[in-house]
Each structure stands twice: as C-alpha cells, then as structure tokens.
Amino acid sequence: MTTNSTPSPQLTASGAPRAGGAGALAGHTVSRIGYGAMQLERLCADRDAAIALLRRAVELGVDHIDTAQFYGNGFVNEVIRDALRPEDGVLIVSKVGADPDPGGTPPLRLAQRPEELRASVEDNLVSLGLDRIPVVNLRRTDTGPGLRAEGHQAVDLDDQLAVMVALRDEGKIGAIGLSSVTPDILRRALPAGIACVQNAYSLVSRDDEELLRLCAERQIAWIPYFPLGGAFPGWPKVSDAPAVTTAARSLGRTPAQIGLAWLLHHAPNTLLIPGTADAGHLEANIAVGEITLDDATLAALDAVESRSNDTTLR
Predict the structure, then answer these.
(1) Which residues are part of the catalytic machinery?
(2) Among residues 27, 57, 87, 217, which is most buried (max CB within 10 A)?
(3) What are 190-227's pLDDT values in tens digits?
C-alpha cells in the first residue's frame, strides 16, 4: 500500500482506466469514484470475501479508499492492510474524532480531545500498517447527522488543528481534511491547509451548497458521504424523487446510479466514495462514471426539492 505518486491522468498506477475520470486530492491524482470502506465490516465473518472485494475495486479503477479505525473496531483497516499492495498506488484516507465502542449504540464514541486525536492517528497507523497516512479527516460534530459534542468533548477548533498540524509536521499524516463542518469552521481552518471536506450531502439534501462553493473556490476536494440519503429514519432518499426514477428509466440505469452521476456532474471538485459489501453493487457504482446527463435531465434533477438531513443522536 502506498500513495499514488506516479499515475497518469487516464490510468491508475495499476493500469486500470480511472473510475469516473481524474480528480485531485491532497496533491495527488485520483479516480473521481473511490470506495468508502465502512460497509466492509459486514463481511467480518468472511475476511477472504472482504479482501476480494477490495482487489476487485482496484481492478475497476479505484485508487482512493476512505476508512476509519472505528469501522468494525479495526477490522476494516486490517483488511485494507492485507488486501492492498504498494504497486496498487491507492490513496488511503482515514478519519479521527471518534473511537470504537463495541456494543454501543452507535458502536462508536466521540474522541474530540487533542490527546484522543493523536491516539486515534496512532491506532490507524498500526491497523493500516503504515508509517504515514496520506490524508486524515478531523470529524467534528458541527452539522449533519450523528452525535453532538458536549461537556469535555466540546473542543475548540484551534486546539484540534494544532495537534493535526503537529502530526503532519511529524510525518505521521500527509494532509488534513475536515468532516461534518460549517462554512465558518472551514474558513477558520483554511490557514492550516485543508485538503478535503466530507459532509452529508446528496441530490435530495443540499444544505451545504455554500460550503461546496467555498471548497470549489479554494480547490478543496468535496467528498459527500451518505450520497443517496436515507441513512436514518425520516431522511429523504434519492431513489424516492420522481425526477430520479424518470431519468433512471430513460437511461436504463438504477436510481442510485442517477443520484451518484448527478453528484459528479454538479461540481468538478466532487469525489465519490460509495460503499458496499457486494461485488455487483461495486461494479454498478463504478459504472456511474460512464453516465452522461443531458441538459434537460440535469435541469430536472437540479429542480428536485432539497430537504434537511440534520439528525442528532444522543
């Protein structure tokens, strides 16, 4: 496993055509369609199947994988370590700000304090088998779904960025990203150098247009998570939008593929990390890069009503 320092704009380091074309992340060229590894924990009883799925992703042109130590309490990171080879040139992105909490609901706990962020990076380095993680996202709780920081977990951004910059200076991480943040938080963080932003965002939940525009202006990669909505009860689902199902029928695609294709068309700095534990779904996600949306279809999709997906867990 290594960073992809020498791929061409058209091909990954392993020689596969780029899934979705070429994008930029932390000074590296990556395929615009990557892989979010969270769902690999569903294969914890079949490690060989998890490894095979990652190998298939690389064959299909994926060279950007998103992970975290709290995915499967280290299982997902360990599978990534075992599945990937240096010649694959895959850019690994992890995140800190939460730690595993096996048996909890959800099975993670916030870990926002500077010493916890440092410990989480160290845990990721060990489970991934790396000396340096190319990109690490600081997952805050300013917006979007999930837990909210309270009490001693409510930590000032400057204190968090100080330890992230120190870890970068020490060579333990290559670049800093942010997750679940507002435009004001991003503006405050810009002097530290921000490579990417991950927020919950989809065709039917577009609260973060201002943040997306700011990322585009600053050449910061925009990496939406939950890109199809519906991750929690009451959330809007991309597949429920009539304009999406109409486009899917017209183009002979699935509603999920249309929702992902719209994200790629909507902003050039968008990188996708759809996750799955199924090889067929993986291939369908990669095929999104082949979808062309004409002006009329894009206009119909752009007109879909957006609803908030800000769900707080306690």
Answers:
(1) 71
(2) 57
(3) 999 999 999 999 999 999 999 999 999 999 999 999 99
Q: Is the pTM of this model over 0.70?
A: yes
pLDDT digits (tens, 9 = 90+) for 121-146: 999 999 999 999 999 999 999 998 88
Domain holding 308, by residue range, is 22-313
Q: Residues 56-113: pLDDT tens digits?
A: 999 999 999 999 999 999 999 999 999 999 999 999 999 999 999 988 888 889 999 9
CATH number assigned to the domain comprising residue 124: 3.20.20.100
Report the 3 state secondary structure along the chain: CCCCCCCCCCECCCCCECCCCEEEECCEEEECECEEHHHHHHHCCCHHHHHHHHHHHHHCCCCEEECCCCHHHHHHHHHHHHHCCHHHCCEEEEEECEEECCCCCCCEEECCCHHHHHHHHHHHHHHHCCCCEEEEEEECCCCCCEECCCHHHCCCHHHHHHHHHHHHHCCCEEEEEEECCCHHHHHHHHHHCCCEEECECECCECCCHHHHHHHHHCCCEECCECCCECCCCCCCEHHHCHHHHHHHHHHCCCHHHHHHHHHHHHCCCECECCCCCCHHHHHHHHHHHHCCCCHHHHHHHHCCCCCCCCCEEC
Q: For residue 6, tell me if it sits in a domain.
A: no
79 occurs within a structural domain? yes
- With respect to residue 234, please indicate whether it lies within any of the assigned structural domains: yes
Q: Of 194, 197, 201, 163, which Cα lies nearest the Cα of 179?
A: 197
Residue with tokens 């306690």: 314
For residues 272 and 264, is the Cβ–Cβ distance under 8 A? Answer: yes
Instruction: Give the pair of three-digit tokens for residue 239.
Output: 């597949």
